[in-house]
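Structure tokens please, single chain.
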Amino acid sequence: MTQFLAKPLRLFLVVLVAGMAQPVSAADTNVVNAHVGVTTDIDPENSVGFRKGSLIVAPIPFSNPLIGSGLALGAGYLFTATEGAGTSLIGAGAMRSENGSEATGATLKLSLGGGAWDVAATVADASLNYDLLAGPFTIPIRQTGTFARLQFGHQIAPNLSLGLVTKYLQTDISSGNPAFGSLGSNFTLNGGLEMASLGLTAEYDTRDSDIYPTRGTHATATVLRNQVETGTVTDYTKATALLSQFHSIGERSVLGLRLAGCSTERSAPFFDLCSIGGTDSMRGFNPTQYLDANLLSVQAELRHMFTNRIGMVAFAGAGSVGTGFDSLTRGGAAGGLGLRIRVSRKVPVSFAIDMSYNDQGESLLYISVGERF
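Here you go.
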């Protein structure tokens, strides 16, 4: 399910992932624990090793255009495996939304060799209900499946890492709407689909924080070759690139900018086509509304903290999809405002409530934890 499955699943892991993005001190961990109801003592003088970690349990309310509103519960154990390494994580979670979508999953991230090596793995099982916006039709979809992802990364230079990514997906899709049967074979996927993927990823990161950056650049590029074992679509390649930059404005404001690009083949399964709101995480459109083989989008967000705990954001973006980069003919623009409430005095993780408005007169509500990019 890639982007349709992975993004809802990350809702219940986002607090845990945010925690693993930087080394967690004893003070930071105790503050986070105070907000999620779990207390674990850490010796600040000797916090390296699995036994010196901390347990975090977090209930996470959410709302998004794909599966609606719901509640997720995540639990994770954070620790520092070796001296000088980043924070490692073992986590698990479950979620359920108001439309009956549900998922369970587990994740592992190990930072080793003083941070020079990273290993990340995720497995999940999900049953999602969502609407496919296919031209004039709104088609209800039920998609079930099992997803697994494994990534190895190595820092080859300061701020630059290369990695190997492999994924596995088994999924079935159904709909009671008669219009669904008239769509292409990469939409109906008769008999289900089983897919194995292998590719390369590169990351350049000079941000001062993974959780709430105030300056720096973050760029990622991924190329995956997807081998379809069963189903009605052929093998295909997909490439994505994301570039984000952050600039401090005074002591309390940050300007964030993001450029996104995506390219694949039109015969790819519809849920893995380039998607406004899916590939680029842009707010303002259902991620099934604009799907095609190629995508370009740009976003800007002004973030301001009024106090150490309360802030707001103003955001805007525009994107287009099409059969080629010379024919990006479908898309739109959107913007909006959001409220930020810090869940910790030490670790800058925020509860986010965003309301977006697009150029088609639609408004969409997003409730999540953490920044959009």
